[in-house]
Amino acid sequence: MRSFFKTKTAIVLALSATVGTASADGHSGVEVLHWWTSGGEAAALNVLKEDLSGQGVGWTDMPVAGGGGSDAMTVLRARVTAGDPPTAVQMLGFAIQDWAGEGALADLNTLAAEQNWDEVVPAALQGFSKFEGNWVAAPVNVHSTNWVWANSAIMAELGLTEAPSDWDGFVAAMQAAQDAGYVGLAHGGQAWQDATVFDSMAMGVGGPQFYQAAFIDLDPDALGGAQMIEAFQRMETLRGFVDDNFSGRDWNLASAMVANDEALFQIMGDWAKGEFINAGQTAGEEFQCFRVPGTEGTVTFNSDQFAMFEVSDAVAMDAQMTMASSVMSPEFQVAFNTVKGSVPARTDISDAEFDACGQLGMAQLAEAAAGGGLFGSMAHGHANNPSVQNAMYDVITAHFNGEYDAETAAAELVTAVELAK
Amino acid sequence: MATDTSVDLRTRLQNWLPKLVLAPSFALVLIFVYGFIVFTIYLSFTDSRMLPSYGLVGWENYSKLFRIREWDVAITNLAIFASLYIVICTVIGLLLAIFLDQKIRGEGVLRPIFLYPMALSFIVTGTAWKWFLDPGIGIENTMHLWGWESFEFNWIKDRNMAIYTIVIAAVWQTSGFVMAMFLAGLRGIDTEILKAAQMDGASNWQMYRRIIIPQLRPAFLSAFVILCHLAIKSYDLVIALTGGGPGNATAVPATFMYSYTFTRNQMGIGASSAVIMLMTIAAIMVPYLYAELREKK
Q1: Nearest to B263 among A70, A397, A398 (CB)
Q2: Does position A11 have pLDDT exceeding 50, yes or no?
Q3: d(Cα B44, Cα B260) in Å, to the nearest integer?
Q4: Residue A162 has pLDDT above 50, yes or no
């Protein structure tokens, strides 16, 4: 009995030792930290998983739920501080730059040169995927955020044959909808949603130069100036077309209001399209998409990227490069983005498999990229670092909820940004 | 001689055993509570942003902290929330305890009913109350469905009233627990004194006002201290109930601290706000502990 026990213990010890060493140096896979946990997102990610397993690269999933990824970033911080970073991490905008600045990211230059990333990825996107001229992340998609999603049935009922072409037409359409008993603008009162709308208002009032000066260069004159005040005034106008019960509502519930014939418009990024498609609707038929009036020709974007963390052993590095290469392959970009609702991060891909809104988005993205109208979205952390972004959130959401008038809000914006810089 | 050493060993062991058993937990607490408090205080004087960094910047984080408008909002909200929460919980808790103390039938059933909300986490309370209070699906909607069309209760969507909805949910959660503390206090009062007072012709009201409530002083103090620190660290309830909104109307120091430290990459300012919160608690706890320790002597 005793000897049996001894052998058993020995076997267990031996096993655990082998398992231990196997996972320590035989890392023939990638560990991916991400927050794509909803149905559509998970399905999109599966495309990548299967592609990699076809190439003999294993996948260790490390999902951290929570839209926007702030929880995922907290987990990441803990992992990196403990000296055990995941291989690849889904990241947005300035987070990539911050981590690259800490010296934590791997160098993808060789692969990028081989596959000509410099040519096919728009320059505005490269600004986030590269740190000091070196590729550190592989962009997966481009979401543009200055979209209006409209209910076709209500538009027809109100006699709106086509999308409003200017701000006044847009306001008149919402007024007509409100008079007919609908909600003019479906909106969820969360800070990031208020900021998403504000992005488009600022772009619509001041155009690209103003957007650049205010949100990217943080010029105090632009932040507190007349155009900013007008942008805030437009927010007040929009506030008049939002129902009373908006605060704290999730964005997808606001999309559902448009899908269910309760509301005419929603201003939201193209992830909203996924909700319409989930509801069995088709772009161009039950719902329509157009750019927020005044922002035509420009695209404010955010882009999901996979940042690659520095790993030490060669096997893991191989797996990492395979993953980066797969992410950038045209097949994956098409397969992923048709499911996710966004458009590919490369501008050299055929739009044949995309729906009407997807094709419009791809054409406009290429046009904006060529004409210098492609800007990182302030609301989605692609115009400035998180501290400035959140400082702006505070002011915008406080104003939208009636705490400030437009002049005070513009003045507060200057102070808030100064403190956060 | 042999017995002497064994007795000696035994007493020595008996002396050492408690210390040995306590040592690991003592060391853990020393590092993971007090060590990190010191670390946080140190961080609050550094230029830390995304990760801890050790360049000292003096009082800059504190001066910035007090210029941030959201911090003012958070402090004001905490003042409103804490004062209402503590007072209402204490009053309701005391009244419930007094009623339950009337030797009524079914006390055994009633006590856990009142105490039960405490068993729920603040996240559950917050989510449930979020639904109750939401005008679109909660009480207001129900009243409309029952035909009371003019009924209006939209505090949770109102910037000026939202903080009071948090008080409602928090009071619902904790007053049963306060009741239990007072009930224990009431049961500990010597009945002889009460009988004597009764014979002297004291009315019920006089007995409570002059004899019973003054004797509950230790229970009042414990309730106050517990409610105080629950109020200052209130985070989960706010997040679940309003997410800090509408706008940032219900931000409290705890949500402020989390957001600055972990999502805004301004760890230095986050650490300084945490230190301010610690100081607030210390300002309450230190006099209390001092009083407690003196009483023992």
Answers
A1: A70
A2: no
A3: 12
A4: yes
* Pairwise CA distance, residues B170 & B117, whole Å: 10
State the Cα angle at B83 between B82 and B88, rounded to 5°: 100
Binary contact (B242, A387; C-beta < 8 A): no
* Residue A255 near residue A149, CB atoms below 8 Å: yes
Other Cβ atoms closer than 10 A to B143: 15
Contact B245 A416 (CB under 8 A): no
The CA distances from residue A339 to A125, A191, A272, A333, B21, in Å, are 21, 27, 12, 10, 58
Place of tokens 């105080």: B228
Q: Phi and psi of B49, rounded to 5°?
A: -120, -80
Amino acid, res. B270: G
Which single residue is written with the structure tokens 């449930």? B128
Which residues fall within 8 angstroms of residue A374, CB to CB, at 6 or more apart?
Answer: A122, A123, A124, A125, A298, A299, A301, A365, A368
Residues of A in contact with B71 (CB under 8 A): none
Which residues have a Cβ under 8 Å from the Cβ of A200 and sit 6 or more positions away?
A: A145, A146, A267, A292, A294, A295, A300
- What are the beta bridge partners of residue A92? A304
How many CB atoms are located within 10 Å of the residue B187 CB?
10
Secondary structure of A345-356 in HEC code, one letter for each residue: CCCCCCCCCCCH
Return all residues near B247 (Cβ < 8 A) that are at least 6 apart: A189, A191, A247, A397, A398, A400, A401, A402, A403, B159
Instruction: Classify the C-alpha dihedral A410-A411-A412-A415 as positive or negative.
Output: positive
Residue A25, pLDDT > 60, answer: no
Shortest Cα distance from A418 to chain B (angstroms)? 10
Nearest CA in chain B to A100: B50
What token pair was written down for A101? 């600045």
For the stretch A382-415, pLDDT in tens is 998 888 998 999 999 999 998 899 999 999 999 9
B11-to-A190, B18, B19, B22 alpha-carbon distances in Å:
65, 12, 13, 18
* B275 Cα to chain A: minimum distance (Å): 19
**Predicted confidence (pLDDT) per residue in A53-65, tens digit:** 988 899 999 988 8
* Residue A213, number of CB atoms within 10 A of its CB: 18
Contact B232/B281 with Cβ under 8 angstroms? yes
Which of A76, A193, A403, A408 should one mutate to test binding to chain B, selecting the residue with the greatest count of B CBs within 10 A?
A: A403
Which amino acid is residue A164, in one-letter code? P
Q: The whole model's pTM is what?
A: 0.81
Lowest mean pLDDT among A67-71, A326-330, B83-87: A67-71
The yes/no answer to whether this complex scores an ipTM above 0.95 is: no
* Residue B295: Cβ within 10 Å count: 8
DSSP symbols for A386-416: HHHHHHHHHHHHHHHTTSS-HHHHHHHHHHH
| DSSP 8-state symbol, A105 | B
pLDDT in tens, B115-173: 888 888 889 999 999 888 888 888 888 898 998 888 888 888 888 889 999 999 999 99
CA–CA separation, A205 vs A226, rounded Å? 10
A408 in contact with chain B, both atoms CB, cutoff 8 A: no
The predicted pLDDT at position B5 comes to: 65
